[in-house]
Design brief:
This protein is α+β, with helices and mostly antiparallel strands and 306 residues long. It has two domains: 81 residues, no CATH class; 209 residues, 2-Layer Sandwich (Nucleotidyltransferase, domain 5), CATH 3.30.420. It is built from twelve helices and eleven strands. The strands form four sheets. A four-stranded mixed sheet has the order 7-6-5-11, with helices on both faces. Strands 8-10-9 form a three-stranded antiparallel sheet. Helix 4 crosses helix 5. The longest helix has 22 residues. It is globular, with a radius of gyration of 23 Å.
Length: 306
Amino acid sequence: MTIEDEFGRSLLAADVFGISIKFLVDDMLNAVNKGIHGLFKPSEIHVVITVPAIWSDAAKQFMREATKKAEITKERLTMALESEVASLYCRHLHIHKPCELSNACMDKLPIGTKYIVLDAGGGTIDVTVHEIKSEHTLREVRPASGGDWGCIMVDKEFENLVERIVGEKVFEKFKQEEKEDWLDMQREFELKKRETKVNSADKIRMRFPLSLTKLYEKHSEKDSCTSLASSGYAGKINLKNDKMTIPNTVFVELFDKSVTKTISHLKSLLAEDSFKEARILLMVGGYSESLVLQHAVIEALPKFKS
């Protein structure tokens, strides 16, 4: 399997992953060694690599092969499912908000408690049920299931929005020739995505790079007002100088595909016997910080108290 970079050059995927893992381990060692007397050696470190629970055995094996290229021996490696690691981590957090069961807190749930884990990440969203077996162990009641509905799907919808405004050719040229502006735009969208609320009356204001405006005017010989009219966003999105103003309702629509698929899958699982005993839902993963996703889950599952 190969991966292409932005210029179409290809490398073996295992090499790319191996180099990335090695960089992370080396960076961690450098950071640790700056703060201690003496020196940690790579051979003294046990590495835990987490993978999405819905990954196939072949995908997990691929990660094992990549770790060999990162010079990590099998004796120093543990592969773990992201949802299990997150679940164990949350079990030892001192969360003071009481839950439904005997006013217990998350870190003191009784043995035998079953709870749903919704792991929402960048690429995937998977759902499973865990049962507490002891203070330090848990049992997977049902194998994880899900799909590629993570926040990357929301990012893609934002790209589609910009593309509808300026056109496919101009947008591709912008991403190739003005990489710094495109990265800045992505970073700003990431921040807005995290703080967006469903029922807010506020409008979302973002920078619309002048380089993108100039590219559009150069290759289409039209101004920004004309581009909005042809995109279907006239009267909704406003472009002025280097600013783009988006109504909150339009911005929230970018989450629709991801949220709809997630909620639909979650509802279908709740009809299964293994899910019926669970009264707690634990949302983990970076995408779980999204207020839009949180709102959708709470609305769809009224029996789970937020």
